[in-house]
């Protein structure tokens, strides 16, 4: 039986979404076809569509009744996580031919690495790249010749963009195919220690680069539990992966077997057969509730407080921060993966992985079991793990007991009783805070504010010794309209140093932090943003600010009359709007919505 709060939140999402969801499903049904999509094209159109194919594939596309599978790929050499995708298209083509169909790369989407752009001008494009990826997915599938699609993508904005695009083509079956994490390298805790020592000036750049190179050392996803690995966790529990595939390492026979199987599952779900399951119908309100529960149970990336809202809207579903907060209150934290612990995702996978996690959450009534998935059955199929038996792909039940209860626990013995994500509100606006990695005694910080307009100024003040005190560091004019809402991850080492010196420290910003945010209490994604009339623009140095993650408040302790009369600060943002391609994104900054509505350029209007 589903937990009553899970049921109540789901019911209100269904009710709230009803008009838009109904219209969306009508459009999905209208776009479906029981004949191969390519046969609706004119002869010249169809000929263009298969002109580059080999003889056998061309024959099938011309005369056959098999399915055509479109591959949308985020492959590039720059991202370690996406490097393995270079060989996937041929594996997928072979798998499609084996079941009487054809697969071809429909298009590529951009894929930037936040790890490269952290603290650099390119980070101002990062969040908007999600919407570019959704647009690119639409272009890839716009030829309207495919009967199903599979999507190759892993990292931060890439999976949310691909899912948004996939749901826009909701009449097509869709499978996301992961590539898996790199093997474990330098422990993440050691990497963080070296970063902090560098911030203190105790080690040089060569030592820092050596540590970073040992942490990020091979093809595959980075092993900490940031947005990329949270993506993998959530889409698997949403049923968009085949079971147990998220965290199998690249370049292994099991990885290749899972890739071939995933392609064939997409082929099996087309309207040409008797098991038609379009992704727009497969992913529903329950699927998103399951994703939110998984986010909380694993202490996942706060970026998903933005991304999940955008993905849901693409499917006609309206999800809110209040929904996320209410689900967090009843979801226990079952995982300790860095930065919420010392382990990485390889350790999580070895301890029992997603199969163990799903079974535990189902047993506690915290997930909807009766959802559709790419396996064509409920979520119980995701309590199993894949393996090779005589070279053939098979599944077995996940372990009954966690292999390491410092990493993964049962619902009977959680790390904490709630999911570690809180919604804060007050006279500074509304925001989210991730508490799962923050010590309980630091869940309330009250201190004078020091106000900055960029993270470089914070770094300079830290180096000058100006922040050696109890302080709430405020970094404003970092929202989507101001400069694209960059992640401010480079603030963490210096703020961590201040906290380790014994000072009370918190961060308040209308910018972003991700699953890589750590031990400092951080009130993030503050909305309305400062540039759009948000009250952060009223703050002055020395104002007392209270960040209270226990009562859910974010407030400047300034007399009400003084606060109301205080003018907004003004700032010249022109330097943030040029260089590294940022001038091309002026329309995105203009159109961007609020963080609590997904910070997206899309409106998904019903008209």
Automatic annotation (TrEMBL):
PROSITE patterns: ILVD_EDD_1, ILVD_EDD_2. Pathway: Carbohydrate metabolism; Entner-Doudoroff pathway. Residues 406-599 form the Dihydroxy-acid/6-phosphogluconate dehydratase C-terminal domain. Keywords: 4Fe-4S, Carbohydrate metabolism, Gluconate utilization, Iron, Iron-sulfur, Lyase, Metal-binding. GO terms for biological process: D-gluconate metabolic process; Entner-Doudoroff pathway through 6-phosphogluconate. Its EC number is 4.2.1.12. Its cofactor is [4Fe-4S] cluster. Pfam families: ILV_EDD_C, ILVD_EDD_N. It comes from the Bacteria. It catalyses: 6-phospho-D-gluconate = 2-dehydro-3-deoxy-6-phospho-D-gluconate + H2O. Binds 1 [4Fe-4S] cluster. It is an enzyme of class 4 (lyase). One of its GO terms (cellular component) is cytosol. [4Fe-4S] cluster binds at residues 155, 222. GO terms for molecular function: 4 iron, 4 sulfur cluster binding; metal ion binding; phosphogluconate dehydratase activity. Gene3D superfamilies: IlvD/EDD C-terminal domain-like. Residues 69-380 form the Dihydroxy-acid/6-phosphogluconate dehydratase N-terminal domain. PANTHER family: D-XYLONATE DEHYDRATASE, PHOSPHOGLUCONATE DEHYDRATASE. Belongs to the IlvD/Edd family. Catalyzes the dehydration of 6-phospho-D-gluconate to 2-dehydro-3-deoxy-6-phospho-D-gluconate. HAMAP family: Edd. NCBIfam families: edd. This is Phosphogluconate dehydratase. It comes from Acidocella aminolytica 101 = DSM 11237. The gene is edd.
């Amino acid at each position: 039986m589903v937990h009553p709060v899970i049921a109540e939140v789901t019911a209100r999402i269904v009710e709230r979404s009803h008009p838009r969801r109904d219209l969306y499903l009508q459009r999905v049904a209208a776009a479906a076809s029981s004949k191969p999509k390519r046969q609706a094209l004119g002869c010249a159109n169809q000929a263009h569509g298969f002109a580059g194919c080999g003889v056998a594939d061309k024959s099938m596309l011309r005369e056959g009744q098999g399915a055509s599978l479109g591959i949308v790929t985020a492959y590039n050499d720059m991202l370690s996580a996406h490097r393995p995708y270079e060989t996937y298209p041929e594996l997928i083509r072979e798998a499609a031919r084996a079941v009487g169909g054809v697969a071809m790369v429909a298009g590529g989407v951009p894929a930037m690495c936040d790890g490269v752009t952290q603290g650099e001008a390119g980070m101002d494009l990062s969040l908007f790249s999600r919407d570019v990826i959704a647009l690119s997915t639409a272009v890839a599938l716009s030829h309207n010749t495919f009967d199903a699609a599979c999507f190759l993508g892993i990292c931060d904005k890439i999976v949310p963009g691909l899912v948004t695009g996939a749901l826009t083509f909701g009449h097509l079956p869709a499978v996301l195919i992961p590539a898996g994490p790199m093997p474990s390298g330098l422990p993440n805790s050691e990497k963080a220690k070296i970063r902090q020592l560098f911030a203190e000036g105790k080690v040089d750049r060569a030592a820092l680069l050596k540590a970073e190179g040992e942490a990020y050392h091979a093809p595959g996803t980075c092993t900490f539990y940031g947005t990329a690995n949270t993506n993998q966790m959530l889409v698997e529990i949403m049923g968009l992966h085949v079971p147990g595939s998220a965290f199998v390492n690249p370049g292994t026979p099991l990885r290749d077997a899972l890739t071939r199987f995933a392609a064939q599952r997409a082929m099996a779900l087309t309207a040409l057969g008797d098991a038609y399951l379009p992704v727009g119908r497969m992913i529903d309100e329950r699927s998103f509730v399951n994703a939110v529960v998984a986010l909380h149970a694993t202490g996942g990336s706060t970026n998903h407080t933005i991304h999940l809202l955008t993905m849901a809207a693409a499917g006609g579903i309206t999800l809110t921060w209040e929904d996320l907060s209410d689900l967090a209150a009843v979801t226990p934290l079952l995982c300790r993966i860095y930065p919420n612990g010392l382990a990485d995702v390889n350790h999580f996978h070895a301890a029992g992985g997603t199969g163990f996690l799903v079974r535990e959450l189902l047993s506690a009534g915290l997930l909807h079991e009766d959802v559709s998935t790419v396996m064509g059955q409920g979520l119980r199929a995701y309590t199993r793990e894949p393996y090779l038996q005589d070279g053939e792909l098979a599944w077995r039940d996940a372990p009954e007991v966690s292999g390491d209860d410092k990493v993964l626990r049962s619902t009977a013995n959680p790390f904490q009783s709630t999911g570690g994500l809180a919604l804060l509100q007050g006279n500074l606006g509304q925001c989210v805070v991730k508490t799962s990695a923050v010590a309980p005694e630091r869940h309330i910080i009250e201190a004078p504010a020091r106000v900055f307009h960029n993270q470089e100024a914070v770094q300079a003040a830290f180096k000058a010794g100006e922040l050696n005190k109890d302080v709430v560091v405020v970094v404003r004019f970092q929202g989507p309209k101001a400069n694209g809402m960059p992640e401010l991850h480079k603030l963490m080492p210096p703020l961590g140093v201040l906290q380790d010196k014994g000072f009370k420290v918190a961060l308040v910003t209308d910018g972003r932090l991700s699953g890589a945010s750590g031990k400092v209490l951080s009130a993030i994604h503050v909305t309305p943003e400062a540039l759009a009339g948000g009250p952060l623009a009223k703050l002055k140095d020395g104002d007392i600010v209270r960040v209270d993650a226990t009562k859910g408040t974010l407030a400047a302790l300034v007399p009400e009359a003084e606060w109301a009369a205080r003018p907004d600060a003004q700032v010249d943002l022109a330097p943030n709007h040029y260089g590294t391609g940022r001038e091309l994104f002026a329309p995105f900054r203009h159109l961007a919505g609020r963080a609590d509505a997904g910070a997206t350029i899309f409106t998904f209007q019903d008209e």
